[in-house]
């Protein structure tokens, strides 16, 4: 009896230890993974980007073709990232893949631009869309005051940060719930459009492929607008270490999510053009609201709420995924060690999540979002192209490396070439913003040498840095992972 009791007590102690150990846990199954991708991809883009795609493509038919091609291109990229995510089991997405295939400097530069302007700019843009759709219905038909929109946007960002600091499970459940809500909003747009189309309302599709107004320098901008709406298919790769059975879950979730989003996006745009002329769509500041006023008079007041929740879901997905890149970068020694620590009770990467918050707030209050969003796409797609090129190089150099999922070579090569082509063409289309993006990226080079080779800094500076890190660690109640999760 005594021996049995002692064994039970030992087992209880072991269970307790397992629960208390500081680590990021594998809690993301297939449904949360699908919700995570769809919920991050479907944000404000589908409600804002149709205008940008149409004005740069020049016709209804070409704009629908751009939407479809952007979906196919994003699916090809997502399949490449499915191979990368199953070949390299660390979290961190772009950063990890560049580190493993092309080396530390490209990886650090991707980390640098992500937190210097890509993630704050995208988060600010999406949160402003959230604030606008929440506030404007109360002031219609008058314009809503911008300070109030910014205040509501700030409250949305604060809510998302609080959820992601509090619990990984809560953040995942929030994402699942918001994904179902946003898919309901899109279906609500698609159904009346398809019904009207079936009844013969096709006048806006007549002469759909007029190419008189199309110019070569505008085409990459049309693709940038479309690809912005599809952006987010790579976020599941940021949290690989928290995915249950990643070798199966990542390829399945990516394939199902991107096929679903592509079909839905094309159908939503067909619905828009069924109920609105191209001129009316270009004049609309909120395409979904204009559509609802035409096709869903009884539900027109509900659409802004659904769009706002859709933006909130995209914001939650971004704050869930991006800090993991910073977390892994700090773990690899490319960022201060405090950002590779986890809250001892909540088991969330608290410092990495919190770092994003003041950057987004700063960008929201200064109002420089729209200038930044124009050249965010260049840096994002340039590094994605580098990551898939690195995958091809790694395949050639290490043919025996285990790859549980392997994308066909033609897809990987085509995607990489098209990405570099779009990036190169943007240098011609918009040299000013692209040039600024290059300069901002290159500012990370001296920071890289200061960060990685910080042991060469004066001893006094290192002592101050270490003291501040220790005090911050005590204040935030965080510690390093106690077990390896990759």
UniProtKB/TrEMBL annotation:
Sequence intervals crossing the membrane: 28-48, 60-82, 116-135, 147-168, 180-198, 218-238, 250-275, 295-315, 348-366, 372-393, 405-428, 434-453
Pfam families reported in the protein's UniProt record: AA_permease_2
Keyword Membrane belongs to the record: yes
One function term, GO molecular function aspect: L-amino acid transmembrane transporter activity
Coiled coil: none
Keyword terms, alphabetized: Membrane, Transmembrane, Transmembrane helix
Record's bilayer topology term: Multi-pass membrane protein
InterPro entries in the record: AA/rel_permease1, AminoAcid_Transporter
Subcellular location: Membrane
Keyword Ribonucleoprotein: no
GO cellular component terms given for this protein: membrane
PANTHER family in alphabetical order: AMINO ACID TRANSPORTER, CYSTINE_GLUTAMATE TRANSPORTER
Name of the protein described by the UniProt record: Cystine/glutamate transporter
Taxonomic lineage from the root: Eukaryota, Metazoa, Chordata, Craniata, Vertebrata
